[in-house]
Amino acid sequence: MVGKISDIADALWKEPSEKNWKSFAATLGKSSVRYYKVIFANEGKLNKMQDLTKSFAELYDSKYKLVTKVPIFKKEGKKVRGSTIYLTGLQVSNKD
Amino acid sequence: MIKQDLTVLEERSIFVLREAKQKFGKVAALWSMGKDSTTMLALARKAFLGKVPFPVIHIDNSIDFPETYEFRQDLAKKWNLDLIVAPSEIKPDLVGSACCGKNKPETLKKVMDEYGFDALIVSIRRDEHGIRAKERYMSPRDKKFRWNYKDQPAELWDDYSSKLDVGGHVRVHPLLDWNEIDIWNYVKRERIPVNPLYFSRNGYRYRSLGCTHCTIHIKSNARTVENIISELETTKIEERSGRSMDKEREYVMQRLRSLGYM
Amino acid sequence: MIVKTISLLGHKDHGKSTLIGSLLMHTGSATQVRIKEAEAYSKKLHKDFEPAFILDSFAEEREQEMTYDTTRAEIKYKDLAFAFIDVPGHEELIKNMISGASYGEIAVLLVSAKADEGIRDQTKRHLFIARMLGIESLVVAVNKMDLVGYDKKRFDMIKDGLSGFIEKIGFEKTMVSFVPVSAYKGENLVKRSRFMNWYKGKTLIDLIYSGTKKQSGNKTGALRIIVQGFLEGQRDFAVGRVVKGNLSLTGGFCISPGNLPVKIKSIIVKGKKVKKAIIGENVALQFDKKMGSDLRGSVISNKGDCPEARAKVRATIFITKKLDKNSSIRFNGSDIQIKKMSVAEYIDPTTGTRSTNGKMELLSAISADLILSKQIPAEKFDETRELGRFVLYSDGAFAGIGTITGY
Question: Which residue has the higher pLDDT, B108 or B167?
Fold first, then answer.
């Protein structure tokens, strides 16, 4: 079932599993989201992969209106891994 | 895009890497964790009996993709790399091309001075940009990192420049003759690990990787190395003309930046 | 696909860009999109179709006040690809010309058939350098035949005018061919021209194709490995490249200079232990003992077949910078002082004429005996390219090139 993008984002925050990321990526293609921006924790100092849990990505529509925020990690058991691969369909943006 | 004989390319790169190691006292390499510089490390492992005999520098602006950091961590361990992470500050007032364009060379200069490297291996390819036509396998930079492309040392008959200005260094380009498609064919043949961000999601992929601020995706359904190779075989020039001028320009600038020309 | 590099010589206005554009089009190496763009651009300028625009649209704009070269244009034909290096006439420094042309495997010379655009001295000099660099195969394309009414007489005149010079500077007759073309109209490039039935030879692309097949560099022969040096901290492990012959572990070996006997315990190519290595391969060699002296620039051969080390050689030298007391040669990575130089002959590179009287001039050549400060494992350029050539330095700057012709 394809839900609203913000609902699936909530699900990701609760459980950033590969399964949830895949269904999120499937929804993303059909949504209004066009751009994303990564906000790193610790002023961008990524010392260990664990720091990713405090970082996130902001998703914007074509008019740079904020749609929702999503994590940028996924959990494989206890291991934290990057998950921006699921956002590749969007354009990165540093437009402020 | 012309596919070249990988063995010929490989031999030339190994020769250049070994020359660099012979000619210069302190050699280092730039490693962006991208496909080109990772291929260069794979070649160095072949040239130097399984180990990379020089430090690899990552100019880290702290805003690379998480997958890139993950890739750095995993491969540095697997290949036992002597990794130097040089933090580069992101200045909030600089955006777009000015951002890496200004910060990265400054950081690189600092690292080069601090460690006293006199040669820097950079994995540029001639097919990346028209300016490459004038590049040499070994090319001196002055202490301000400037490249006097009009008056460079002659390079012929496997005799490469060893000229060092005071405070300057020599850039070494072992991958100069490789085309983009050769890199991917070699990645396939040698099973070289690559960053997962090169592969397509939702109809897009990154053709060259920068940071999370300015990397540009291209339309693509290539989900494997094989897919990327056949994509490059068929798209040729249409791939370029399919992009808007703005994006094309940005793409070129991004490459220039990453290569230290800006 | 094997890419063959071709030095394209010729004066600027003799149609080099048009030729490359035309070849891209007629060999199917340019896409329809590219050709359409060139058509549109030609129309915009109210011109007939200009093939050079196919190439020009590859050209980058000015960025950072740097003028870019055109991107390497690669032309596909049969099982090969040809990458043309444009060797510009006047505006480039001669050292850039030499560097560029040194990568060419064969040369194509483009000469305009127009009466007011014949061959220039500069172009002849470039031809002389190309031959010195080791280019054996040459195709002379007489261009702009459409503008001289496809007249056989114009073609013959240029051919006769050049043949003597070309042979005089060392090209073998069988390695040189002439073809009348029109780069602009595409005549005799890939398809035979209907307008020049008097010409019975091959088309330009076929001449280039067969030329690259003829070109070979070192003939097979005795084993020669040039040593780059030791692996870091391992004086029993040398790295180098097989430049001639084949290496296998059987029998003993020797190192020149010094005629030192040595045993090779193992050969490593690209990280793998192997039993033999072939020409062109980069090897790592493990000796049975640590070596005392530095080996950079030394040669490893089969026992009893070492090249003789010599401190005196006879060489042909092309000079680009005044030689002074502080002159040296760079020979396989080592710098060796020239102690004495005595000129035997002065060679005019624009005519090929040799004479015992003359003056040493820049951008001209000499044949001279060099006395070196150290012995080198030299061979004649014709025998082993890599052991018969050197780069000249004067006061630390590039001063020319030399090829060894005798001892």
Answer: B108
Q: Do C99 and B14 touch (CB under 8 A)?
A: no
- Asked if the structure places residue B47 within a domain, the reply is yes
Q: Which ipTM score applies to this complex?
A: 0.88
Backbone angles phi, psi at C352, to 5 degrees: 85, 0
Shortest Cα distance, chain A CAs vs residue B158, angstroms:
42
Q: Which helix H or strand E contains C282, and what residues bound it?
A: strand C282-287
Q: Is C96 on the interface with B (CB under 8 A)?
A: yes
C264 beta partners: C287
Is C398 near chain B, with CB under 8 Å? yes
Same domain, B116 and B234: no
- Identity of the residue in B197, B212, B216 whose CB atom sits nearest the CB atom of A85: B197
For residue B76, the surrounding DSSP H or E stretch is: helix B66-78
Number of domains in chain B: 2
Q: Is residue B232 part of a domain?
A: yes
Q: Which parts of C43-145 are beta strand (E)?
A: 74-77, 80-86, 106-112, 138-143
Cβ-based neighbour number of residue C207 at 10 Å: 23
Place of tokens 């000499």: C366
* Chain B closest-CA separation from residue A70 CA (Å): 14
> Which domain, by its residues, includes B82?
6-179
Same domain (yes/no): B103, B171: yes
| Separation of alpha carbons C389 and C98, rounded Å | 14
> Cα-flanking dihedrals φ and ψ of residue B145, to 5°?
70, 15
**Cβ-Cβ contacts under 8 Å, B43 against chain C:** none
A 10 A CB-CB count for B200 gives: 22
Q: Is the pLDDT of residue C70 over 80?
A: no
pTM: 0.88
Residues B137 and B90 in one domain: yes
- The SS3 assignment for C359 reads coil
What are the tens digits of pLDDT across the range A27-81? Answer: 888 888 888 888 887 665 566 777 788 888 889 988 888 888 999 988 888 888 8
B141 and B169 fall within a common domain: yes
Residues sharing a CB contact under 8 Å with residue C327, sequence separation 6 or more, in sequence order: C337, C338, C341, C392, C393, C394, C399
Of B179, B208, B227, which residue sits at a domain end?
B179
Subunits in contact with chain B (3 or more CB pairs closer than 8 Å): A, C
Q: What is the chain C residue with the closest CA to B3?
A: C1
d(CA B24, CA B119) in angstroms, rounded, equals 6
Q: In this structure, are B53 and B23 located in the same domain?
A: yes
Task: Please tell me the distance from the alpha carbon of residue C396 to that of residue C379, in angstroms, as a whole number.
Answer: 25
Phi first, then psi, for residue C247 (nearest 5°) are -110, 125
The per-residue pLDDT for range C340-368, each reduced to its tens digit, is 999 999 999 999 999 999 888 899 999 99
| Fold held by C309-406 | Elongation Factor Tu (Ef-tu); domain 3 (2.40.30)
Question: Could you tell me if B26 and B117 are in contact, meaning their C-beta atoms sit under 8 angstroms apart?
Answer: yes
- Rounded-to-integer distance, Cα C400 and Cα C387, Å: 17
How far is B209 from B32, CA to CA, in rounded Å?
A: 8
Q: What is the CATH number of the domain that holds B130?
A: 3.40.50.620
Please give the helix or strand (H or E) that residue C243 lies within, else none.
strand C234-244
- Angle between helical axes of B180-190 and B6-23 (0-180°, round to 10): 90
Distance between CA atoms of residues B161 and B23, nearest Å:
9
Across the interface, whether the CB atoms of A91 and B73 are under 8 A apart is answered no
What's the CATH superfamily of C2-214?
P-loop containing nucleotide triphosphate hydrolases (3.40.50.300)
Specify the CATH number of the domain C224-302. Answer: 2.40.30.10
- Nearest Cα of chain B lies from the Cα of A29 at a distance, in angstroms, of 6
The C residues from 187 to 216 touching B (CB cutoff 8 Å) are: none
Q: Which of C64, C270, C398 sits opposite B261 (nearest CB)?
A: C64
Given this chain, do its domains C2-214 and C309-406 carry the same CATH topology?
no
- The two structure tokens encoding residue C356: 């015992």
